Amino acid sequence: MTYLERLNDKQKEAVLQTEGPLLVLAGAGSGKTSMMTCRIAYLIDKCGVSPWNILAVTFTNKAAGEMRERVDSILEEIGRGAGTQNMWIATFHSACLRILRVHADVLGYDKDFVVYDTTDQKTVIKAVIKEQNIDDKKFSAQYLLSIISDCKEKCMDPEKYIKTVGEDFRTKDIYKAYKGYEATLRKNNAMDFDDLLLNTVRLFERDEAVLLKYQNRFKYIMVDEYQDTNTIQYKFVKYLAEANNNICVVGDDDQCIYEWRGADIRNILDFERDFKGAKVIKLEQNYRSYGNILDAAHCVISHNRGRKDKKLWTEKEAGEKIKYHRAEDERDEARYIATEINFRMKHKPDSRPEPFKFGNFAVLYRTNAQSRVFEEIFGRMGVPCKVVGNVGFYDRKEIKDVMSYLRLVQNPKDDVAFERIINEPKRGMGDKTMEKLKGWAAERNLSLLELLQDDAARGSLSAKSYTAVTDLVNLLTAYHDEMDDIAILEIYDGILAKTGYLKALQDANTVEAEGRIENILELRSAIEDFQKEMPEGRLQDFLEGKALASDSDKLPEGEEAENADKVLLMTMHTAKGLEFPVVFMPGLEQGLFPGWRAMDREDGLEEERRLCYVGMTRAKEKLFLTGACMRTLYGKTDFTKESCFLNEIDKKYLDSDISAGTPRSDFGTRTATAFRDGYAENPAPKSPFKGMVSVQREVMAKSAGNGPDLAVGDHVTHVKFGRGEVIEVDAKTVTVVFESEGRKKLARGIAPLKKIEG
Hints:
The chain is α/β, with parallel strands linked by helices.
């Protein structure tokens, strides 16, 4: 069976529609990825389009990677081995970053600019708040950053912002914060995530030749999850598509759940107006869920007014009805769900070929605060679980510290990274000293690291600080100069040992420090994996990959997922794009889901309803909806009323068992089924201790010294330059004449040189 024969009629119609604008309304579980990958393959296979001329953009690295793998698989199947080698299949941010790496100088940036994440942004804005004497009680860092992000998504710089909203005591402070924030990023040769998109659009608007270059290259454009695009993403694809008009967008307005962070549903609803002559194809056949799940979900979403008319259907059986349970409180709700999971783990349905695993179950809630009680109750009842989307690995303090060291190696202008690590470990740099240095750096238009390369500037420090800071500056400068010739792992090991960071944790000798050491050594494993996957990868590539990672990219896959057989706990926002055999949706109560704020306006309630639809359609075999008569949340206990979404579901799709004592609702009252304390509760399994001593010793031994003891006339080898002879040695450098590369002056103790004996 060929790749086209595997498609249904509507999918095939979308694949064959290769010219002109095309809107594919792809419902949940309708095989949109299959359609998109087959369409790319068809363009290359039957239409003779070069992969060089195709751009496919989506929102996560995971989705982009999956798309590339599936296209490559199809092309290999039909004997087109070249595959997607010269094709851009990327996220919006990585595609824009790739363009800016080539053309950033047009906008006044160095091409080695750094990308700031949310933690870096907070550091910058807090400093600006202090410098501008802004009242941080009235304007929190998070609030100001949200305003700035919103402005950037709407293409408003500080001047346009103040002109648009008008000047008063409130907007004047926001304007000052925004302007100061932008000035700091410019000074640090840095961009935030919003800048990657905004600056690419500015680049297209400023330099017609650059725009024409990419319009001529990307003759065919495909956009995944188009309902989630914001204003600036819309402009990005609109500019690129103007020349050839061959744009295919795929999405589902019923799954637009990110308006709170800038997604504009009008982009998909108004596609036919924006791209004249557009053809619309609906993918309504669902391959994921049983019929009752789809019909119940449609009952909910059909109450939205701002949507395109469509209804999912399936060739699968109706399946079990949706189970609704109203518990006494949130703990009772968690016990009910844990009991259902344990029961189904022991009793395989006749309709199911294999027994359930814990990883087949997902609990999808509206807010992160709901996870706490599930973690506690599941642990007591022997249900292993994993919270997806809480503090991630790369957000941990020690990881942020070491990553900041690496960022400074790549970009010496990064003051945010410098301020983070200057006293990690302690180097005696107090706040007053730092303020003084920042003032000098500002006067000379230098970064802090660049300023401290001047011995006169370091002369103002205490004797202890002078030595420690001098060693740090020399180390970072040497690694920066050599970074293109040294493996990332060599740099990482050197940073851990030569800065004293690893030793400080070892000397602390606490359980917390032990955990931190484990984490930084796990980061070392991540670098090793990166170097295996990208042998030619540079430090910049590694840092960018981690900066662009998202929560959905961190879900376990393959063998890792098999070894981590746990019930997944996550918000419905995080669950988008995923599917599970059994889904539990707790908290179906007015004020929680939908939330009170959403009920204040019609468009807010419609987005909450779309979120409910997304949650329901994650379920393949069985869907549970639960709520509580009384709930304690954010330290407050309230009696609750059932969610309006429950009343929108036709009762013929529901099997409800409402607890005794529950206030009357449209569902009536039934026999009590709420569970009490008293179950045999198993303690949560503990992770075995992972030994780390040997790895620590390896790192310290590998990097603590100054390299081989070299003298003039010694013969050496270099990992990149090959064999050579030492012709000059001083305290900091060694000069070598290499057989293939000629004369090179290298940093002593940094450059990967090995002495050849004999």
